[in-house]
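Researcher: Let's run the pair from yesterday's discussion. Sequence first, then tokens, for each.
Model: Starting with the first of the pair.
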Amino acid sequence: MVPELSVVIPMYNEEEVLPLLVERLRPLLDHTAATYEVVAVDDGSSDLTPALLQRYHREWPSLRVVRLRANAGHQAAISAGLVSARGDYVVTLDADLQDPPEVIPQMLELARRDGVDVVYGVRNDRSTDTWFKRASARAFYRLIGAVSKTSAHADAGDFRLMSRATVDAINGLPDHNRVLRFIVPALGFPSDTVEYKREERAAGSSKYPLLKMVKLSLDSLTGFSAAPLRVATFAGIGGAAIAALFVLYTLVVRAQGHTVPGWTSTVAIVAGFSAIQLLCVGILGEYIGRMYAHMQGRPTYFVAYDSLTTTDGSTGPTDTALPAAPSVRVPAEPRASHPLRGVRSAAPLGPHEQAHTGPAVDGQVALGRDDGPQAEVDDRAQLL
């Protein structure tokens, strides 16, 4: 059955905050008058986040786990969740609980009542953010609005509700390096807002350091406007005009019989024009890099595992029961022995498994099983 609501949550090394998220989100959605699924996108976490997700999946049938093979980035993880989500309405929510999940029912009610396609979560109180972050965010949103004519909310991040039509439109876009907080407003679909107070991160540390913020800013600027190219053009025109005036000046001075001494002016002119040229080349390089990435056609993420598509009997989150205590491991069921000496007979291979040749046993070859990337997650889940 297709759920009415999908909640997409990208996660990267969120082992500390994940229990708090489940504790707040599950009872909230259970009391919502809508069928739902929670799509947790594990963005290549290296801590216990994958194992915790498998544990919660066993206990919470509506939790769906999508694991990426490698860390692809926050925006790519959200895109993977949007492709996987099946609901008529899709909410994107970060795992850090700075955006309260308690606002989701209000978003859903507003979308149903007014028939809007997008409901943005807008922060009316950002006192938990630093002054630098608030000031830089507002300045950046003004810049994007001025150069791209995109009316993105300055205090809206990635917490929003979208209709199925909006999600399908986003999934159909050919863009790489998507910045969804600008793509969604650029679609121009009917929208509304819900205000809330932004809280401090419930646990763990921020996954958006300064360098990632700079990269996101560059992707946003070059992805939504050709204004930087026009800046290069205007700088070239201005430089050409100044050069023409300087040539005219030198001709006049020479006609009057005066000499133009000094290397200072020469160095200043050369340095100035060199700076303009380098700036123009750098801006052009940003766009050429985007064109190169688009022509390559490489996917921005690779899905290693999806709990929804795991069939019965294959390697998945429900194959192995949780231990009774953290120090006790559940022994694996013995496999049926093969009549031939030194050869093990394996059960039929699942969709996540590959047959491989194992080490020789008594001069014969033993058949092993490769459970894929999910095997490591199941092993770690045994310890929880």
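Model: Moving on to the second of the pair.
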Amino acid sequence: MILTTGRDAPNAAVVHHKVPHKGDEQLFWDISNLEAVSKEWHDSEGQREDRSCIRS
């Protein structure tokens, strides 16, 4: 899998939901909705994306 920054993260311990699941269990567990990312990216950019989707 590729990080948004363009760096490979095949052994990433963190996954990001491409489409926010908003509590939908089917979307939460949908493998095609997941991408491997670094913890650093997830804790910064990923969370910023999630928060912006919640407000919409």
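Researcher: Give me one sentence on the second I can quote.
Model: The CA atoms of residues 1 and 10 lie 6 Å apart.
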